[in-house]
Amino acid sequence: MALSEDILSTIPHGTGVYLLRDAKDHVLYVGKAKDLRKRLASYFQKRREQGTRTEALFTRAASIETILTKNEKEALILECNLIKRHRPQYNVVLRDDKNYLSLRLDPCQKFPRMTIVRRLADDGAIYFGPFSSAASVRDTLRFLQHIFPLRRCGDVVFKSRTRPCLNYQIKRCAAPCVALISEEEYRKLVDQVVLFFRGQLPDLVKIFTKEMQALADRMEYEKAALYRDRLSAIKRTLEKQSVTSTRLVDRDVIGLYRQDGSVQISILFVRNGAVIGHKTFPFREAPATNEEILSHFLRQFYGEGKYIPGEILIPLAMEDQAVIASWLGERTGENVSILIPQRGDRHRLLLLAIKNAEGSFRQKLKEEGDIHNLLALLQEKLRLRYYPEHIEGLDISNIGGKMAVGSLVAFVNGSPDRNFYRRYKIKLWEQPDDYAMMGEVVSRRLSRAKEENSWPNMLLIDGGKGQLNVARQVLKDLGCSGRVDLLALAKGKKGEIDKVYLPERKNPILWERNSPLLLYLQRIRDEAHRFAIEYHHKLRKKGLTRSLLDEIPGVGSVLKKRLLTHFGSVEKLKEVSVEEIASVKGINPSLAANIKAFLENYKRAHSITE
Question: How far apart are CA 469 and CA 476, in angstroms?
Fold first, then answer.
């Protein structure tokens, strides 16, 4: 039953958060307001003017829950947490593909190294980024390692090395692991990396020039040549750097473009006065105003552990602008300004971000048109019941039936949607039986689809006629025949073209090798295969990392790691005394005696070593 305006009399005046729920008590929408009753009253009065999506929301909503808060900031934080928890269907939910990578350097370590991370933590480390692609961050890391030869290995390898690795030979590492560089000299390298991260490249040029000259005066020409090469690399960086401001500030510039009910947001990342990357976010059938979308975007984007710069430029004013700025400032411990520039460098950057948003919107529109034509042609050629907007691909991976796993991937409107990806650990079959394993995975997926009424339009099976018949039988057993289109794609033998199998057709369909329809199906099949192999390797790695130490009572993962680091292997551990075992941090004499006794008993009971 749809909500009536009579419910407004039960809504309190005051700042807080409201949740719209359907008849099954599922959360449809979460919002906040300075005055809850006024905000909800405005929805009832103007909901038809706000689009079909808002009208549909209030048609489905059966109840309203309100939570009063002390102030707007508290309401903002609560709203963010509730959206994360419930992922409401009608909220502007930011679908972040987690491609935000940064470089991390912890100067507090004795011999720090640069690492690639996805999340920023308040841990005293220095971060450089974000980068919108893995390729760009790895290129930057390679460039930095060429100039600043910091160690690349992890802590365990670093502590156990007895001689320099290949990176030292090619001058990509100073080999602090075997003391070929002093702690003082290594600290100089770290300080130089920090200068680079902070954009103080002219200072680096001065340092390198001075060091090069001093080495040349001492006739240490080989070392001087290293500084000459580093100096040249820094100068090239200065020449090609796109500086947008003479002030070396960090800022994010957010542009917004709207056409009908669709919105595109583009964000430029400016670090130390230079644009280092950008990212775009589409919002289709957005029910909110531009102001609400922008507010939701800022709260979700910076609430997910992203780097928060000191300055954020936006294209329009928001009611909660000051509250969001204060909230972000609390998260960083520094002042954060949210500005709407009207002139100067900031304004030109904002216009560029808006132009990027419009350009990516039009490009996306063209791509969607192309994929629509492809999917319509696929439906026509295969005579599918349903327009294949949502296709799920299934694959099985195993070695002789061992560690068998299944994978499910989803392509929605032509693009992978990882929100629907699933992994299945095969439960029922010890002996290799591809048909039975495929049947188990199909049954588990379609049983859930039946229970939740969450059907894909098409299920693409990796295999031939046999696997397809198994899936068909599962649908029949569930009483859901015809509820989803089924298709199998089998690899061709010895260079033959892949074959497409349909349930009602005896012979396979053979398309040209470069057919766009075949290439699209192959893309889905290959993604399912990749996802299955990735999971299979993960399980195998987990199994291979188990050792005899895992069987010893009182020895957990931390002590196991310390023992292997200290002694090198289980075989060497078997030969040492109780006193030597007790010298490892965290192991007392009693536990050391138990470990020694366990290993000796194992050695007597087994004729072969581990």
Answer: 10
Kindly tell me the burial class for residue 251, based on how many C-beta atoms sit within 10 Å of its own C-beta (0-12, 13-18, 19 or more). Answer: buried
First to last CA, the chain: 67
Cβ atoms within 10 A of the Cβ of 257, count?
22
How many angstroms separate the Cα of 151 from the Cα of each of 131, 158, 182, 228, 296? 22, 8, 13, 21, 41
Angle subtended at Cα 186 by Cα 183 and Cα 190, rounded to the nearest 5 degrees: 130
What phi-psi label fits residue 87: left (phi over 0), alpha (psi between -120 and 50 degrees) or beta? Answer: left
Residue length of the chain: 610
- The residue behind tokens 């670093």 is 158
Question: What average pLDDT score do residues 282-310 get?
Answer: 80
Given a contact cutoff of 8 angstroms between Cβ atoms, the answer to whether 60 and 53 are in contact is no
Same domain for 481 and 501, yes or no, is: yes
Place of tokens 């002219």: 202
Average pLDDT over residues 46-74: 77
Per-residue pLDDT tens over the stretch 318-340: 988 999 999 888 888 788 999 99
In this predicted model, what pLDDT tens digit does every residue of 116-126 receive, in sequence order?
Answer: 887 777 677 87
Count of domains forming the chain: 5
Which DSSP helix (H) or strand (E) runs through 404? strand 402-412
Q: Is the pLDDT higher at 298 or at 569?
A: 298
Same domain, 508 and 554: no
Burial degree of 464 (CB within 10 A; 0-12, 13-18, 19+): middle
What is the DSSP track for 199-237? Answer: T-HHHHHHHHHHHHHHHHHTT-HHHHHHHHHHHHHHHHH
Q: 28 lies in which domain range?
A: 5-86
User: For residues 395 and 408, what is the distance between their CA atoms, to the nearest angstrom?
Assistant: 7
Tokens found for residue 254: 């957010």
Q: Which residues pair with 461 in a beta bridge?
A: 394, 488
Element housing 357 (H / E):
helix 344-382
Q: At 281, which CATH number?
A: 3.30.420.340
**Residue 587 shares a structural domain with residue 538:** no
Name the average pLDDT for the chain.
82
- Which of 244, 243, 247 minimizes the C-alpha distance to 345? 244
**Is 491 a residue whose pLDDT tops 70?**
yes
Q: How confident is the model at residue 606 (pLDDT cuts 50, 70, 90)?
A: low
pLDDT tens per residue, range 374-419: 999 999 999 999 999 999 999 888 755 566 788 999 999 888 988 8
CATH of the domain at 593: 1.10.150.20
